[in-house]
Amino acid sequence: MLTSKERAYLRGLANGTDTIGQIGKDGITESVIAQAGDALRARELIKLRVLETAMLTAREACEVMCEALDAEPVQCIGSRFVIYRRNAEKPVIELPRAKK
Predict the structure, then answer these.
(1) What is the pLDDT of residues 9-52, one digit of tens each?
(2) 55-90 in b/e burial notation, b at 16+ Cβ within 10 A?
(3) In the chain, N or C terminus with fewer CB closer than 10 Å?
(4) Contact call for residues 64 and 28 (beta carbons, < 8 A)
(5) Closest residue by Cα to residue 25 from 59, 63, 51
(6) pLDDT tens digits for 56-68?
(7) Which strands sit side by side in the sheet containing 72-77, from one edge to the other?
(8) Fold that domain 4-84 belongs to in CATH
């Protein structure tokens, strides 16, 4: 579970990144999940877009993708959402530490 400080940090990082994938009228397929999984393994933080023709809202798609990929939701605005999954073997993003 991400803290609010970690989530805010990740939102800032996601602001400058491009959308990696799209979810269209076919919904969330195995190929979409596989593509997002590969991208998460390499980048840890990805941004996806839900097209108008999709039968899901961005929030619904975010929930389904996070559950399928064992990822954390970071942000959902309009038709785009951002998810994060830490790479245990080779971390790319260093999250801020909580102050004690």
Answers:
(1) 999 999 989 999 999 999 999 999 999 999 999 999 999 999 99
(2) ebebebbbebbbeebebbbbbbeebbbbbbbeeeee
(3) C
(4) yes
(5) 51
(6) 999 999 999 999 9
(7) 21-23, 45-50, 80-84, 72-77
(8) Translation Initiation Factor IF3 (3.30.110)
